[in-house]
Each structure stands twice: as structure tokens, then as C-alpha cells.
RNA sequence: GGUGCGUUAGCGAAGUUGGUUAUCGUGCCUCCCUGUCACGGAGGAGAUCACGGGUUCGAGUCCCGUACGCACCGCCA
């Protein structure tokens, strides 16, 4: 071994021990005949001191050299409180260079000035830094807890295929061409959905997997093309069972990684979440619900509001207390542009301060309407009312986005809080303008609510399902549902989606057949591991919690993937690249 | 597919109404220094101003396009 101790473990009590350490030179401080070296490994940093008799040993050693050092642990006269090992140093008597290093393109320290693209190109250097290293260690801790808790409750970890079958009705698949079957493709799984349901039919009862999933869709700050799900499925179980199991896992994770014990899991129906917060993943670290003020303005003297009501649109209002002084005219102009991104035409605002109104709709609205609004919303001095009059869904989403943005900017969010909520009873279908038909909102194996079974084919818009999400601090942390386990019911749903018998057989044949051989009632979830670790580690960037992430255009700056391949490889696969 | 912002020594930034040798910090190299821990001090090297085109007597600066990066909308059963 190159070491008998790590760089993070020596303390005062080790004084006098002769030790051997190995690691990277994080910093070299040459004071003339005495040289200090901060030696770094995964566990921490230890100061190595080379006195006048030994400083020549590190004459040519530079930052990020890998060295092996032997010496005696000494107690420092001036301890460094910033380091766990700050009370001691190792007085070196030997040094061996294990590997030299070029000058690195970035400063390897907790605070680096390197921008993200450079850090991604040299990710292996970035991982030496605490902010990234700690997140990978946290991620490991989370998966370890998950495995332990689920195993305690008789869950079985089963690995499902990466080379699988393309599943329509979902995200775009990553495809893998088959060599043996010319013209055919495997697809990388978007999730192990079908496999885990087949495991239930196979009697596996309680399954989980730390599963890699792939989706060929455009990316975001919280989305990568490949990501990891803590995938679970339970037989002979319903919402209550799966909620209880997930809550148990979350409680263990938050207790053991953050020391947080008082987690709450309130439930809110999808329609209510949209109505109050304009989002199916509202951040409940602050409340500020939207209020429907449509009725107040049905006879408004303000034509914009009156016409909106007549056209069947909705007027939604959002109140921020004590915000008059914090929101400038310029800010309202910015917000007005901001809502347009969400297809809303405009954002109206009204300030109420010193018992007087002002704002963009102050002149347009007569005094009695403003007083009625004040009364209805119980306005107090200093309050700001933001309103959007538009199609109900547009008004909700636009104002919901404003709620989230201003909640952050006005400092309404307590960043030490963890607010979960279950969102339940998602719509069964949503209408695809692109395909001119109803498509599954979740996936076509999701069970409808018992009371909506008769709406499956007749009233798709008002048919709700037994799908649920768990939201944490405004992030969709998991999705899941109670599945259909009855062939007749499944046939109805496919019918409602407008799929022919032939399409069903081609797309889901083996899956549907399985349900004819005895399927237990079952339900499950897929927990987004990256999002969970993001929140636990306080970052809003998914790349921070992935060892080797891709850029927003799904490119790996480090390895240059995807890349061109040799003609030979294409020939083996009978593939030809079209030149255009 | 769309919108916005960005690209200047190894790294991070500044660069005025277009004007002569492109500035600062840091890192790097050399020298000095026995208690630093973001050590300190002195000196030095280091730039096709992302790429392509255009306007102009003259472009880092203005215009158009491309590439890449970031964020958002669409998309993500």
C-alpha cells in the first residue's frame, strides 16, 4: 500500500505516530527553506511540512502531483480551524513522486473560477473538488439507504434489460441497431415500466431497482438524457401501501443524510393544485395561493376583463403582502414579458398602499370594483395584486410561474425547509393537438378512478386516473400509479386512445398477453434519484449530482460523445448515413 | 422546433461615441524568504479578441450567418 492512513483522519491523539500518506498536492507553500504541502485525497486534506533538511525532496513537486509521503504526526502551534485535520501536521522525512502532473486548466479548489463547460471537459479534475465529490458521496449514501430500507421490507432488487423494445406513446427512444436482425432496433428503456409489471405477474411481489433510464428529449437544468430512477412496484397493494412505503424511504433518507425528522406528506388533488398554484408541482415552502376573481368582473367597466368573462375565460389573482416597495415599475414590465412566455396576453397589477390604489389597471377599473376586489381578497396596505385574464389553463400556468418566480425573488422561500406533497388524481388523458386525438397523460396502463370508469370512452376530458406524483420543494420527485390489471379494462383504455387491435398487438402484444395469465392488482413509482440528491445537496443543477453529465444539447464535452464511427461498424449494422 | 443571454492570454473578467502598443485579477515560470495554511515580496512569459462573411480609411467594438455553452417555451406516456 502507498498509505497506512488517509488525508482526512489524523488528529491530535495521533501525535508522534510515524505515518505514510498518499494523495494529490492541493497546494505548495514555499517559505524558503521550509515548504508546506497540502496533501489531498477523497477523505480530506493534511498539511505536510518539509523542514530545512527535507525541503529539497519537493523542490520539483508541483500542484496535482501524486505523491507518497512518510513522516511523523506533530501538533501545530497555530491550528487551522478550517480543516478537520487542522490541529496536526505531518513532519515529512521522505517523499516519492508517484505521478507528475501538468498545470491544470482549472483551479482545483472548493471555490474555482472555472465555468461549467470547462469543468465538464475536465470532469475528472472537477470531481477532485469537494462540491462535486460530496454530492457523489451523498448519492451513494442515498442509494445505500434505499437498498437497506426496501430489503428490510422484503423488496427484491431485480435488474431489467437495457437492450429492450421501443415503447410508443412516450418520449423519443434512444435506438440501438441490431447486427443480427438487419433493419431492426433495440430501444434503451425510458423506464423499466413494462418489465416491472411483468415481474408482478411473475409473482415477484415487491420489486425495486436503481434503474438507468434514457429519454431522447430536449434537456433542462433538471433533466439529463440518461438518469436514474429508484423504481418500485408492489402487488396486492394500492395507493395507501405505496405512499406509506415511499414515505418510509424518504423519512430514512432525510433523517440519515440531513438529520431532518418532521417530514409531512399532505395530499392535494391535481385539479386543486392547478387551481390554487397553477402547477402540478407547486413549491409549498410558501403558500400564496391564487384566487379566482372571475365572478367579480363579469360586469366590469373594464372591457378587457368583461370580455374575458363573456368568452368563458378566467381571471386569476395572486396577492403578495408588503410588496409595494419591492416591486418597481420596471419589474412589472419584466413580469408582463415573463407571462407571455406562457401564452398569456398580459399581466395586470394593482398596488394598494396608504389606502390608495395604483398600478396598470388602476385607471381602467372603477373605484367600486377595486373596493370589491380589496374586500374579496382582504387587501391590506402594502399589498400587490397580480392578475391574468385568459383561458383558464393559460391563466393558471402563467400566474403559477409568476408565483414561483416572485416567491423566490421576494425571499418568501425558507431554503432550510423540505415540503413534500402528494399530487393525486391526475387526468387520465390529455388532448394532443399534434395527433388530433386523446393520449395517455401518464401511460396507457394507468388505472382510472373507480367513479370515472364510465367516462373512459365518453368523457375523456373529465376522466381522472389513479396516477400520483410526489413533489418536493417544487420538483416532481416521483411519478406512479395504480396499474390496470384487468384485460377488459385495458382493452377499453386502448379503445379510448383510438388504437386498433393490430396496433395494440404490435406495440404491446407480449405485455397484454401476460395479463391473461393471472395479474395481481399492483401499483408502483419511479423516484428521480438525481432530483432527490439535488435537493438534498442544495443545488438546482442536475449536472452537479451526475458523475459524467451531458450538456444541454446531450453532448459529452469530455469524451466527445456522440461521435462518428468507422464505415466498418456501419457496414456490420447495414446502416448508411444519409448526406444532406 | 422557438426565444433570450454569452464566447477577449491556462482560467475568470474589463474594454468608453469604431481610432495607434488590448487592461485587470488569478494561474504559470525565475529569484528572495523558517511557520504558512487564499503565505508574502520582486521580476518575466503568455492573446490568430470563437469561426465565416459584410459595412468602414480603420472593427474586440457595428451588421448578417455558423458553431459551441447556459437558461427558458414547446417537448419530456
Cα-based radius of gyration, to the nearest Å = 30 Å
Oligomer: single chain
* Name of the CATH superfamily of the domain at 123-259 and 525-580: Bira Bifunctional Protein, Domain 2
Label the overall shape: globular
| Helix-and-strand structural type | alpha+beta
- Mean pLDDT across residues: 94
Strand content: 15-25%
How many beta-strand runs?
22
| Fraction of residues in H or I helices | 25-40%
Give the CATH level 1 class of the domain at 123-259 and 525-580: Alpha Beta
Main sheet characteristics = 8 strands, mixed
Polypeptide structure, described:
By secondary structure, the chain is α+β, with helices and mostly antiparallel strands. Among the domains are: 12-99, Nucleic acid-binding proteins (OB fold (Dihydrolipoamide Acetyltransferase, E2P)), CATH 2.40.50; 123-259 and 525-580, 2-Layer Sandwich (BirA Bifunctional Protein, domain 2); 286-409, GAD-like domain (Gyrase A, domain 2, 2-Layer Sandwich), CATH 3.30.1360. It contains 14 helices and 22 strands. The strands form five sheets. It has an eight-stranded mixed β-sheet, with helices on both faces. Strands 1-2-3-5-4 form a five-stranded mixed barrel. Strands 12-13-16-14-15 form a five-stranded antiparallel β-sheet. Helix 3 (130-152) packs across helix 5 (239-258), helix 6 crosses helix 10 and helix 8 (329-340) packs across helix 10 (392-409). The protein binds one RNA strand of 77 nucleotides through strand 1, strand 2, strand 3 and helix 1.
Amino acid at each position: 500500500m502507498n498509505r497506512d492512513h488517509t488525508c482526512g483522519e489524523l488528529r491530535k491523539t495521533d501525535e508522534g505516530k510515524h505515518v505514510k500518506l498518499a494523495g494529490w498536492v492541493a497546494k505548495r507553500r514555499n517559505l524558503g527553506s521550509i515548504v508546506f504541502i497540502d496533501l489531498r485525497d477523497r477523505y480530506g486534506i493534511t498539511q505536510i511540512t518539509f523542514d530545512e533538511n527535507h525541503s529539497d525532496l519537493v523542490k520539483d513537486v508541483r500542484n496535482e502531483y501524486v505523491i507518497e509521503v512518510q513522516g511523523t504526526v506533530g501538533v501545530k502551534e497555530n491550528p487551522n480551524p478550517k480543516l478537520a485535520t487542522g490541529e496536526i501536521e505531518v513532519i515529512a522525512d521522505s517523499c516519492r513522486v508517484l505521478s507528475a502532473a501538468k498545470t491544470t486548466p482549472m483551479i482545483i479548489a472548493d471555490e474555482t473560477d472555472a465555468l461549467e463547460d470547462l469543468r465538464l471537459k475536465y470532469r475528472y479534475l472537477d470531481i477532485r473538488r469537494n462540491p462535486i465529490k460530496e454530492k457523489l458521496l451523498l448519492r451513494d449514501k442515498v442509494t445505500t439507504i434505499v437498498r437497506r430500507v426496501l430489503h428490510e421490507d422484503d423488496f427484491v432488487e431485480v435488474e431489467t434489460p437495457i437492450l429492450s423494445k421501443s415503447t410508443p406513446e412516450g418520449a423519443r427512444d434512444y435506438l440501438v441497431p441490431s447486427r443480427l436482425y438487419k433493419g431492426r432496433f433495440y430501444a434503451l428503456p425510458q423506464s423499466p415500466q413494462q418489465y416491472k409489471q411483468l415481474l408482478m405477474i411473475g409473482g415477484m411481489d415487491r420489486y425495486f431497482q436503481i434503474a438507468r433510464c434514457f429519454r431522447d428529449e430536449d434537456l433542462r437544468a433538471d433533466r439529463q438524457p440518461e438518469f436514474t430512477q429508484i423504481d418500485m412496484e408492489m402487488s396486492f397493494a394500492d395507493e395507501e401501501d405505496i405512499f406509506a412505503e415511499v414515505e418510509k424511504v424518504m423519512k430514512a433518507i432525510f433523517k440519515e443524510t440531513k438529520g431532518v425528522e418532521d417530514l409531512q406528506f399532505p395530499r392535494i388533488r391535481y385539479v386543486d393544485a392547478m387551481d390554487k398554484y397553477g402547477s402540478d408541482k407547486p413549491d409549498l415552502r410558501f403558500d400564496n395561493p391564487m384566487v379566482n376573481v372571475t365572478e367579480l368582473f363579469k360586469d366590469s367597466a373594464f372591457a378587457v376583463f368583461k370580455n374575458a368573462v363573456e368568452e368563458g375565460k378566467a381571471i386569476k389573482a395572486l396577492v403578495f403582502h408588503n410588496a409595494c416597495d419591492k416591486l418597481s415599475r420596471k419589474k412589472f414590465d419584466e413580469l408582463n414579458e415573463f407571462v407571455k412566455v406562457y401564452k398569456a396576453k398580459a399581466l395586470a397589477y394593482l398596488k394598494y398602499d396608504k389606502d390608495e390604489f395604483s398600478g396598470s389597471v388602476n385607471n381602467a377599473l372603477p373605484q367600486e370594483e377595486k373596493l370589491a376586489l380589496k374586500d374579496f381578497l382582504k387587501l391590506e396596505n402594502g399589498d400587490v395584486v397580480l392578475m391574468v385574464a385568459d383561458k383558464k389553463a393559460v391563466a393558471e400556468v402563467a400566474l403559477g410561474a409568476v408565483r414561483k418566480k416572485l416567491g423566490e425573488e421576494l425571499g418568501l422561500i425558507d431554503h432550510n425547509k423540505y415540503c413534500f406533497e402528494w399530487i393525486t388524481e391526475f387526468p387520465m388523458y390529455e388532448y394532443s393537438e399534434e395527433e388530433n386525438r386523446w393520449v395517455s397523460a401518464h401511460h396507457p396502463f394507468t388505472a382510472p378512478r373507480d367513479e370515472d370508469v364510465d367516462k373512459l370512452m365518453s368523457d375523456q376530458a373529465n376522466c381522472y386516473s389513479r396516477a400520483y406524483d410526489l413533489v418536493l420543494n417544487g420538483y416532481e420527485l416521483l411519478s406512479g400509479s395504480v396499474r390496470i390489471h384487468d384485460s377488459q379494462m385495458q382493452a377499453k383504455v386502448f379503445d379510448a386512445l383510438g388504437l386498433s387491435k393490430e396496433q395494440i398487438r404490435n406495440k404491446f402484444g407480449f405485455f397484454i398477453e401476460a395479463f391473461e395469465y393471472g395479474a395481481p392488482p399492483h401499483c408502483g413509482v419511479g423516484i428521480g434519484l438525481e432530483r432527490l440528491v439535488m435537493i438534498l445537496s442544495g443545488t438546482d443543477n442536475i449536472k452537479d449530482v451526475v458523475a459524467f453529465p451531458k450538456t444541454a444539447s446531450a453532448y459529452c464535452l469530455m469524451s466527445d460523445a456522440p461521435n462518428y464511427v468507422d464505415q466498418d461498424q456501419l457496414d456490420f449494422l447495414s446502416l448508411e448515413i444519409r448526406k444532406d
